[in-house]
Protein 1
Amino acid sequence: MAHHEHSAEDRAGSRQPQRFDPARAARLDDPARLAYLPPDDLLALLAPPHGSTLLDFGAGTGTYAIELARRRPDLRVIALDEQPEMLALLRQKLEASGAPANITPALPGEMEARGQTADRVLALNVLHEMGDVPLRALPRLLAPGGWVLFVDWNAAVERPVGPPRDHVYAPPEALERLRALGYHAVSARDFPYHYALRAS
Ligand SMILES: C[S@@+](CC[C@H](N)C(=O)[O-])C[C@H]1O[C@@H](n2cnc3c(N)ncnc32)[C@H](O)[C@@H]1O
């Protein structure tokens, strides 16, 4: 099956069924993001055990995967994205001197093929564009006791950045969607423009 057909099919159920356009990848590298959504705060929520595996699901260009991997060289960070174009941009960053060595890019299916699971999953700005099929499948990537932190743009707050309100969820809607798909999900905290939910 062609990669793009696969994506379109897998997107059903999401609020914003358009796939992320790699032509807009530069936005993901805007350093302002690190101020309104600090990587340290995400690490504090994730609290990955020493030496554990952290999966950045829908990692894009790896902005956060790199920040987290740099702060925690003990972690094994897997940066997974369905678009090879995005992973190519991430790989370019990993080739630069000073890039953290503890990141492995992965396409969907590669973790299963390698028998890998994750203790923690960060899904950042991806819930609103993630279809029901991959969302249902995600818990299979969790190690026993593992869980997912869904962090996404909040439709319930005024934002000067991010997608239009009707493309994203308010926290109760996100919780409801996750619960309808069989997750146990609870609110973790709010950021100025994002909500964070803990789910497994
Ligand atoms: C808005 S970007 C966010 C990227 C990154 N998390 C960040 O915050 O910088 C969403 C990314 O999720 C990826 N994506 C969407 N659905 C996916 C899925 N089902 N499996 C893997 N990647 C997915 C897209 O290809 C895109 O690169």
Protein 2
Amino acid sequence: MIELFWLLLPVAATSGWLVAKGYYRRYLTPTNSKSMDAQYFQGLNYLLNEQSDKALDLFVNLSDINQDTLDLHLALGSLFRRKGEVDRAIAIHQNLLSRQNLPLTLKDQCLLELAQDYLKAGLLDRAERIFVDLRQSSSLSAPALLGLLEVYQREKEWLRAIHTAQAYEKLSGDSQATNIAHYYCELASQAMILGEKNEVLKQLKMALLTDPGCARANLIQSQLEIKQGNYKIATQLLLNIIDQDPAFLGEVIDPLILCVEKQGKISGLVNKLSGLVNKYSSNKSVALFSQFLQKYQSTENAIALIESHLEESPSALGLKRYLELSIVNAKPEQKNYMEKLLIIVNGLIQQTMAYRCEQCGFAARAIHWQCPSCNAWGSVKPL
Ligand SMILES: [Zn+2]
């Protein structure tokens, strides 16, 4: 019953729209269009009964379409698209476009809807051609640019995405800096695969010029510098990331320790990391720093850090580290018990999501620079 309620919601909205447009009034009042109104209500009835094929046949074969009924057809096309019935949405919109004497502004509106259908169906070339034409339209330029942006992102045409986002920003006044910086990072990642260091650095420079808060740009460059043995430069880049976004402390602490170990400057890092972990404590950063303390100071210091953090912020990851550290000096009869606990805690960690989108709440086990759920860039952060 609940599923049926949600299925009927869009139809109910369409029905409400009919009320607003005076269809019920006109239907109750005998007019020359009585037959036409009856047909529309028959179509609505088909929709309510989930007989989409019959509804589609009826609507595309209606001979009379005026301004009011055109809006209804557009609403129906949009309804079909939202329900995932893209073929039917395309049929509705193509039918409208085949009508003679359709005013230019209405034709453009129908074309925009058709392009959205193609986008939803994955027919990117067809969608792109329409969006490109509609860019010139005075009233539909903004949605056409957004449609084009979607096409280029799906095609991974990052340079075109940059130019389109810049055009949209200029037109709408909505900042696209975060998105554009990520497009430059995508170009940098492509260049990285090809081993073109200068190109990587060029794109990352553009990313940071566009959005100085783009932690991803410094993360990519730090990976490049580590690969080439430039540990001093990488250290500074990793520290920059913590300044840009402290949420990434857990992501950079491991490579940071590696860089400092390679430079043989361990003592200087203990105080630095200790201060950062205390200031921006996250379960992951505390767990990683405890490994560092165990290696370069003592197991007791590592246990003390974990104990104090667990009291403030209980977590499966913290408990795992606590057990791993404690098991070293445990009595034989305790070890067996603690090993079983470790298996259980590891199972819990496997089920734990480590990242979450700040915009839509999407949770994931790995970082996504573009949220797979709401498509926002840079919104998925370490928990
Ligand atoms: Zn999201």
